[in-house]
Amino acid sequence: MNAYRSSLFAGAALATVAGVAQAQTPAPAQINFSIAPGPLGGALNAYASQAGRQLMFTSDQVAGRRTQGLSGRMTPDEALNRLLSGSGLTAVRSTSGAWVLQRVTTEELATTTLEEVVVTGTLLRGPGDTPSPVTVIRREDLDRAGRATVAEALAALPQNYAGSGTPTAALVGSDPMQSNSGLATGVNLRGLGPDSTLVLVNGRRMAGAGGRGDFADVSAVPTAAVDRVDVLLDGASALYGADAVGGVVNIILRRDFDGQESRLRIGASEGGAESVIAAHTWGRTWSNGQVLASYEFERQNALSTLDRPYTATGDLRPFGGTDHRTYYSAPGNLVRFDSASGGYVVTHAIRPGSNGVATSPSNFAAGQQNYGNTRVGGALTPEFDRQAAYVYARQSLGETLELTGDLRFSQRDFETESLTPTTIATVTAANPHFVSPTGAASHSVAYAFGEDIGASRRSGRSRSLGATLGARAFLPAGWEAEAFLTYGAERSDDQRTGMLQSTFLQEALGNTAENPATPFSASRDGFLNLFGSGAANTRAVLDFISSGWSRYTDESEVASANLIVQGVALQLPGGDMRVAAGAQFRTESLRNRGTTFTSGLAPTSTQAPDKDREVSAAFIEIRAPLVGEANARPGIQRLELSLAGRVEEYDDIGSTANPKVGLIWSPLADLTMRANWGTSFRAPAMVELAERRYISATFVADTVGQQVALFEGGGNPDLKPETAETFTIGFDYRPADRPWRFGATWFDIDFSDQIGRPALDNLTQVLLDPNLAPFVRRIDRTSAADRAAVDALITSPAFLLPGVLPADAFGVIVDARWLNTASVEVRGLDANAAYDLALAGGALTIEASASYMTDFARRITTAAPSVDLVDTYGFPVDLRGTLSGRWVRDDLSVRVAVNHVGGYRDLRQIRIGSWTTTDLQLGWEPSAAWGDGLSLTASVRNLFDADPPFYDAVTGIGFDAGQADPLGRTISLQVTKRW
Predict the structure, then answer these.
(1) Whole-prediction pTM
(2) How many CA atoms lie within 13 A of 700 on its CB side?
(3) Can you tell me the distance from the alpha carbon of 86 to that of 84, in angstroms, rounded to the nearest whole number?
(4) 32 with 71: CB under 8 angstroms?
(5) How does pLDDT run across 330-360, given as a tens digit for each residue?
(6) Where are the beta strands (DSSP E) in 145-288?
(7) What is the DSSP letter of 779?
(8) Beta strand residue intervals within 157-196, DSSP E
(9) By three-state DSSP, how is residue 705 classified?
C-alpha cells in the first residue's frame, strides 16, 4: 500500500473517531423493534437491520415459514427468540460475532454444532465478513425485483456494464468482443470486459464461453436452484487466480432443502419477447446427509427490430439522427468504385416500370439513389428454449469424513433472423435481363435480397456442464482438509442458412458458364435479374443463389484438482488466527472449427489449432484478529488483519504472483471500516496467443471520404499477462438503536498491459487518430513495393475475401494482431443506504444503491495520452443506481423501484440522454391453511414504458445496448408453491 493510500485510510479513520467517539454511549439494553407480520425471511432481514446484527441464513431454511412480527422495546436476544418461536429454527453465534440460523429440535439444542458457511472473498470457512466489499443477491431478492433469471439480476447491478458479452449487444452489432457465438450472457464489472470478471458456481470456475472461451455464461445457471449470488467488488487473484480483476461473481446453489418446490413464471413485453419459465426442485435431508435435484425450463420468443420504431428502418432522422440506410436495396443501384474516396458511389437508381423490372434506359435515374436497410426484421433479443438441471448430494461417513458431489447441465437452443443478404455484382450483356442507361457493356449493381429471399437465418445450440466431486476430512485440533476435483465444459454450435453462394451467384448471372456439377441451369431455370424490385426472379433461381451456409463449433473445457487445509494456527489476544493453504492443478483447452459453403462447389472446412494449457498454483490466506471481544478498548472494538497470496505457473506464459492485504477496524460496535490492497491478473486467452493468421478487408473513414483497408490479424505468442493493482477503502455503519444504516466504498483499479487489437478495436478511427499511426501503412498505388505488399496479402491463403475487390482498390494495410498495449485506471464510489419505518400498519423499507465512477482513464497505446472515457459511448457512465421502497403488511407486499442511468455522449460528442425507469411488484403469501407454502408475485418492469435514450448508431439501431434495453414495459406473473 503506497503512502498516499495509507494516509487516506488513516485520515478517514481518525476523522470518524474524532467525530463519533466523543458521542459514543453504551448500546442500550433494549431496542424499539417494529417488524410487521409476514414471511420469516423478510422479518429476519428487518430484525438484522434494526438490531445491528449480522444474521446469516439460507432462503430454503425460511421458505414457507411465517412470523407474527413484533413491536415494542426489548433486547435483541428476546426479539430474535420471539421471531423464531415455533419455526424449528434457532440462532447460534459464531466466534466472529455473526449469528447463523440452524434447524434443530428442542432436545438437540444442547449439542448443536455450527455448520459453517462459505463466504465469498475468503478461503476460510465460517461465518463472518471480509475486508472486501461484497454485494449479496438472495433468491428472494430476485423475486422481489421481478427478475426472471440470475443473468437479469446481474445485468441490473450498478457496477455492471452490458456493452459486451450479452445477446442483444451481439445481435445489434455493437459488441466489441465479436466472439459471442452462443449468444451467452457475461458479467462486466467496472466495464473492464467480461473476460476480467471471474464467475464461479459454488466457488468453482466455469468453462469459458464464446469463440475465444474467455468469459462465463451466467444464463446457463438454473435460477430455481440458486440460493444467493455474491458479487465481490474487488480484485481477488490472490484468492481465486486469473481473471478476478474487476471482481468475482460467485453463484451459490441450493443445498439445505427438504420437500418440493414448484415455480411457474410467465411474462411478455409489448410486441414480443414472451417468456415462460417452469421449474421444480426436490430435496431431502437426513441426519448425516442430503440430496437435492432441480430442473428448469425456459422458453422465450424473439423481439424484432420491426417491433420498435427506433430500430425498424435504419432511417433515424425522425428521432434527430441520421439516415443509415445503404445503397443495398431492392430496387438496386448502379455503382462504381471511386478510387479517390476509396469506396463505391451510386451513379443511377434503378426505377422499374409497371411490370416490376427495368427494361430500358428510361428506368434509371441518374444521380439518384434507392435506399435499403440490411437489418430489417433482425432480432433484438433471440428466440430460445433453455433446459437446465442441477443435482447435489452430501454424505458423512462417521465423524471425520464427508463426501460431496454436484452436477450442473444446461442446454439452450436459439434461433434468430440475421442480416439481409446483399451483393455488389457485375452484370454483363451475357445476362438477358441486362440493360444500360449509358450504353456500357456491364454495370456493377448493389442489391439487397430481403424482398426476394428474406433475411438469413441464424440458429444454434449452447451447452454448459459443471461437475464437482470432493471429500472433506475433519482433523484433530479443529483443522480440516478438503480435496476435490472439478470439471467444466462449454460448447456452442452456430449455424447460418440462406446465405448467398458467390459461385452460384456468378453462374446465375451468366458471368460464368453453366456448370453441369450444379443442379441449376440458367438456360432452363432462368437468369438472375438484379434490375427488379424484389419479385423478378423464380424460386429456382433464388433457392440456388441462397443455398450458402456456415456452421461453427466452439468448445472449451476446464478441469482441476484441488487441495486445501485450514484451521487455527495461533491464539491471539483478539481471537483465533486462522490459516488456509493449498494447491491447485488446472488444465484448460479450446477447440474451434467450422465449415462454410459460400463459394466453390464443395464445403470448406476450417479448424483453428487446438489450444491447451496447464496451470499449477499454490496459495495461502491468514486472518489474524488483533483486537476482539476479549481485548477491546475505546476506539478499537475490533481490529483484524487479512493476508493472502497466490503463485501460478502457466506452461505457455510463465509465472505470476499476486498478494492481497486487508484490514477490518471497528472503532465503535456499530461502525466497521475496511481496506484492501492487492494485485490481480488476467492470463492471455489461448486464442490471443495462438489464433490463426487471417486477412480481411473493410471500408474505413479517412480525412476525406473512405479507404478500403486490408487488415491482418492473428495470435501473438509473446503476449504477457494483464496486471492490475486494486485498492478499496470503505465503511459500514449500522447503529443498533436507529432504523437506518449506510455504507460506502472507494475503489481504485490500475489495469496495465491490457491485451487488445488497437487498430481493429478502433477501426472507425484508425486513419483519423494519430495515436494509431504505428499500426497503419498507407498504400502508394504507384509504388511497386506497396503493390507487391497488397498482392502478397490478397493472394495469401489466409485472405478471407478472394476476388471480391481488385488490388488497386486497397488504400491502407492495418496491423490488427493481439498486443499488450493499453492501460486504464478506474476510480469511483459505491454507496448504499436503507431506512426502516412503520407505516399504515405495516413495515416499510427504503433502500438505495448506486455506483459513481469518477475516472475511466485509458491509454490505447503506451505512447498515447490518457483519455477519460467516463460518460462516453462504449464505456461506463458516471452514475447508475436504484432507489426502492418495499412495504409489507400481513400477506401482502408492494415494492416500487426507480432505476437511473446517467446521460453521456457518443464518439461525436453528441449528448445521449439519461434513462430512468420505474418497476412495480405486488406480492401475496396467503396465511390461510390452504395457502401454506404458496406465494404469488406480479411484476411490471419499466412501468411507464420509457424508451431507451436515442443513440444515432451507424448500424441504424437507435439505442445503445450497453446502457439500456429495448424491451419497454414488461409484465410478468410468478407462482411458487412449497410442497
Answers:
(1) 0.86
(2) 26
(3) 6
(4) no
(5) 999 999 988 777 678 999 999 999 999 999 9
(6) 197-201, 204-205, 226-232, 247-253, 259-269, 272-286
(7) -
(8) none
(9) coil
